[in-house]
Each structure stands twice: as C-alpha cells, then as structure tokens.
Design goal:
Elements: H1 9-15, E1 25-31, E2 34-41, E3 43-45, E4 50-51, E5 58-59, H2 65-73, H3 106-110, H4 125-130, H5 133-136, H6 159-172, H7 176-188, E6 194-195, E7 209-211, E8 217-219, E9 236-238, H8 240-251, H9 258-264, E10 269-270, E11 285-287, E12 292-294, E13 302-309, E14 312-319, E15 324-330, H10 337-348
Antiparallel strand pairs: 1-2, 1-15, 3-4, 5-9, 6-9, 7-8, 10-11, 11-12, 12-13, 13-14, 14-15
Helix pairs in contact: 2-6, 2-7
Length: 352
C-alpha cells in the first residue's frame, strides 16, 4: 500500500498541537511491511530538553499485558497437566486457602473475568506509590469471596497479570522478565525494549508529565503515580518502531503460534455489557486474552489495547484482516486518545 493513497493532513494537524517545548508523542501507522506514516513531536525529558525520536522509550502501561498473556500462551502446547492449561484452576499454582481459587482459571485471569476484587490497601499513599509485585499480591490471602462467579462478567483487574507472570515462572523455571526478554523481545527484534527498573532509567527512557494548572508541567511517573512499579500489568518501556516489530512478529507467528494468537484475538467476554467496569466500555466491544476487540456489524475487526500510567498514554491497535498496525505513544495525558484513534480510522478509511 502506497502512503500517497491516504490524506494524512488531518493527522498532521493533530501532531502539530504538540509543542516542541512540551511533552509530546510518537506515531507509526503501517500496512503490510510498509510504514505509511511516522512522526515524532515534543520532548522526551523536559529537564534535559531531549526531543522525542525513533529511539525514545515510552512506558506502554497496560499494553504490557499482551506480552504477559503471550508468555503464558507459549506454555500451552507443552503443558501436561490433567486439563488444558488455560482451564487449569489457580489452586494448582497457589496455596491460598479460600475455596474459590478452585473455580478461577488462568483463562479468567487473562480475560478479566476472575471476579477477584481489587482491594489492595490504599490508605498509605507512600505504600501505593512504591509497591512492587509481591506487595501488590499481599492482600489476596485475606479476600473472602469473589465479586461474581468466575467467567460471569468483565471486570478489569491489574493484579491478575502479576499472578500470570508467577505461573509462567513456575512453568518455565525462569525469571519472568528474563524469559520474556529472551523468548519474546529478542526474537521479535525488539532491541530497544525493557521492563521498568525502579533503580535507574534505562537507555532512551522518557519521563511522563501532566499540566500543573499554572501553565507548566510536572513530572508524573514513578514516585508520583500509585502502583507504577508493578511490571507484568504495565511496566514495559518500548519505542514505536519496536512495537511495530512486535506487531509484525505476531502476524508472522514468530513468537506465538498462529492458532494461539487467533485465540487471544477472539472475543471472550463482553465489555459493552459489563455492569461492573467501564474501562473501554463502548458499543461492540469485547475482551479476548490480553486484547480488546471492537467489531461493529459489517465493519473490520479491530484488535487493540490502551495504556495509562502516570502521564503516559499508549494505544496499540491493528486491523488483522487488512494487516494495518497503529502505534501511538504519548508522555502526556491531556489529549483525548480516542479522538486521535477515530481520526486515524477515518484517514485509513477502515471505519465508516
């Protein structure tokens, strides 16, 4: 597909709103193996005055969840338990005493239908700001019951993916982050991608910002935002080009068998009809395994995920049948992400 087939002036207008002296964004739109549109704007680091460019690493926040699910799905074919891995109850992997752990499966974790409440303590803000994975799971032994029967409703739960990472470690015998790096990032060609380390900034790492109300910007990432340090649910830093490599690796079944990839892209639970959670609740929306799916009648299916962490916003979307990939990364959160997404769809003429 030739980029000249599209009029990108509308997207240029949106990108032009990012001042060269303020936090900004990176965007790539590709079809097949061709990049149709790629632009960078704004500053990655306000203090250092570092501009955003192809090597800028953004926190992709909840878009990290698809990597955690992919790591789990890679274990499916080799699992030799009494039932398929995704249908295995969590009681096989965790020794929590409550009987409901016998009813919740790995599939329920991966599609947000576990019914486990998010009752992590929030009275101590310092704890919330610096809590790591182990601390974020400390509340689970005290949970007395689920909010609903497992599999009944969609209710977005971040700690689910920390549990999945723990299961991957049990199945592989390897540190989860090293396993993902060696088995997913490296073969996918994601050479500029890593998990957040609270001890130091990685190479090319940006910072996120929010308006301070007085016309200035204040940093808003680790040390300012709660539950920022948990990684399987939201701790990957990556570049727009690396994320395009990820999308192409998924398309080509380089890191995940095509049948398992397609299973992950299949609607599993209705987001639209959830009475409990409004995150991404719009018409014709479902959750698969690690991905949202939008599929209005007589229109192409969109598979995507969004991410919000501190001042970061991320949007990774694809139209698998058209082999269109969309990556939008921002280190500010004051612009409407869905307005941008809609403008992209209109530009590509994939949605009426």
């Amino acid at each position: 597909m030739n980029a000249s087939a599209y009029d990108f002036s509308g997207l240029d207008s949106i990108m032009n709103r990012y001042s060269p002296d303020a936090p900004g964004a990176a965007i790539i739109i590709a079809q097949g193996d061709s990049i149709l549109y790629e632009r960078y704007a704004g500053l990655a680091d306000m203090s250092a005055r570092t501009p955003i460019g192809p090597d800028t690493r953004f926190c992709i926040a909840s878009c990290s969840k698809q990597f955690t699910v992919a790591a789990l799905l890679r274990q499916v074919s080799g699992y030799r338990g009494p039932m398929p891995l995704l249908d295995t109850p969590l009681s096989r992997f965790f020794d929590y005493e409550q009987p409901f752990w016998n009813d919740i499966t790995l599939r329920n974790l991966a599609n947000h239908t576990s019914g486990i409440p998010d009752s992590r303590p929030r009275t101590d803000r310092n704890w919330c700001v610096f809590a790591d994975e182990a601390q974020s799971l400390e509340y689970l032994p005290s949970v007395e019951s689920t909010t609903f029967g497992p599999g009944e409703y969609y209710d977005y739960l971040n700690p689910s993916f920390i549990l999945i990472a723990n299961v991957v470690e049990q199945l592989t015998g390897k540190d989860f982050y090293k396993y993902v790096t060696d088995s997913i990032f490296t073969p996918a060609g994601m050479t500029h991608t890593y998990y957040f380390d609270p001890g130091h900034d990685g190479p090319g790492q940006s910072h996120a910002y929010v308006p301070d109300g007085d016309g200035q910007w204040k940093e808003y990432d680790y040390g300012e935002e709660t539950f920022y340090a948990t990684r399987p649910d939201g701790g990957i830093y990556s570049t727009a080009r690396d994320l395009l490599a990820w999308e192409n690796a998924l398309r080509d079944a380089t890191v995940l068998d095509a049948s398992l990839r397609d299973l992950a892209y299949r609607p599993s639970v209705s987001v639209t009809d959830s009475p409990l959670c409004d995150y991404q609740r719009r018409p014709d929306t479902w959750y698969g395994l690690g991905w949202f799916i939008d599929h209005p009648a007589n229109q192409p299916k969109k598979v995507y995920h969004t991410g919000d962490n501190g001042g970061y916003q991320a949007y990774l979307a694809k139209y698998p049948e058209e082999d269109i990939k969309i990556i939008v990364l921002e280190n500010r959160n004051d612009f409407d992400r869905w307005e941008f997404a809609t403008a992209i769809d209109k530009t590509l003429r994939v949605r009426k």
